[in-house]
Amino acid sequence: MEKRNKVAIPLVCHGHSRPVVDLFYSPITPEGFFLISASKDSSPMLRNGETGDWIGTFEGHKGAVWSCCLDTNALRAASGSADFTARIWDALTGDELHSFEHKHIVRACSFSEDTHLLLTGGMEKILRIYDLNRPDEPPREVDNSPGSIRTVTWLHSDQTILSSCTDIGGVRLWDVRSGKIIQTLETSSPVTSAEVSQDGRYITTADGSSVKFWDANHFGLLRSYNMPCNVESASLEPKFGNKFIAGGEDMWIRLFDFHTGEEIACNKGHHGPVHCVRFSPEGESYASGSEDGTIRIWQTGGPVANHEETETPPANGSASGKVKVTVEEVTRKVEGFHVAAKDKKTEENKEEASTDTTSVAAS
């Protein structure tokens, strides 16, 4: 096909040493928008959402980090880990603010829209709601999930919780006040990705063989499209709602027409299965995270050509990449984040080594 002969040029974001398993974009703030990534290397990373440039690393987890998110103002980050904790971080300094102990792996976390609550779920089959205004108080627990929890998010102005399970199909919608399931969106396979659209109208799910779109208010199935490969993640374009992306085991990131399901573009660049995809808040670009440990940021409408990939500076802050951004732009939000004086020599050594690194040509 002609479209596969064209090569999209992504920004390639290095830094993680193990697979990238979750991505989350902040809403647009006065300082721009930001991208946080979770990885099995135990260190979530914060980036400039437009350029992909590394801002900082949240250090403290002792196991793989499965989930990450930012609050509405991008002032705090949250992460859920295999070390049996969910943690809250100051996104301005990188400092850990709270660590919430669990009894098993935490697979999912989500800030409420009003930023006062943190929702977590994982292998314990328990939904926990932490009041961030009283972080030392025990969380509220909803303990009748039918399976280990894979994804969680809020909708209906924090009145409803959405969750999916790792081992059984369907998406469950919970009334926050009663703690009861009010609706189940049926799927034949476990849902590995669930997203509420920016306007609150749609729920987008990926369940391996298909991507489905549901009415977020009346819960009816609106569209279901079979995928050309097993997909793990999908995301709906937020501004116009006329496109969606999906990524999975074949390492390609596909762009589809929302109304017809027709494949518009198919971008290759990763060297391992794609675990997560997300549109930026205005839909002009989208990010993908892969088993290969990289994040790639793709322009929704191009550029498309036979050129080399553009690399952002690695997470050590070296300047071997090709993206031109000013120091003020990168550090405008989090000046000095994670870059301690004691690390200066290590960083200098890494910078010297990086001068021999060449760009990876898009395959």
- Detail the poorly predicted runs: 1-5, 303-308, 316-336, 338-363
Average pLDDT score? 86
| Proper CATH architecture of the domain at 14-144 | 7 Propeller
Which structural class matches the secondary elements?
mainly beta
Query: Termini distance?
Result: 16 Å
Find the CATH superfamily of the domain at 14-144.
YVTN repeat-like/Quinoprotein amine dehydrogenase
> Strand order of the main beta sheet, please?
18-19-20-21-22-23-24
What share of the residues does DSSP label as strand, in percent? 35-45%
* CATH class annotation of the domain at 14-144: Mainly Beta
WD repeats: 58-99, 99-133, 267-299
Family: Belongs to the WD repeat STRAP family.
GO biological process, one term: spliceosomal snRNP assembly
GO molecular function, one term: RNA binding
Topology:
Blueprint: H1 2-5, E1 11-13, E2 20-25, E3 34-39, E4 45-48, E5 54-57, E6 65-70, E7 76-81, E8 85-90, E9 96-101, E10 106-111, E11 117-122, E12 127-131, E13 140-142, E14 149-155, E15 160-165, E16 171-175, E17 181-185, E18 193-196, E19 202-206, E20 208-215, E21 221-236, E22 243-248, E23 252-257, E24 263-268, E25 274-279, E26 285-290, E27 295-299, E28 310-311, H2 327-331, H3 344-354
Parallel strand pairs: 1-28
Antiparallel strand pairs: 1-27, 2-3, 3-4, 4-5, 6-7, 7-8, 8-9, 10-11, 11-12, 12-13, 14-15, 15-16, 16-17, 18-19, 19-20, 20-21, 21-22, 22-23, 23-24, 25-26, 26-27
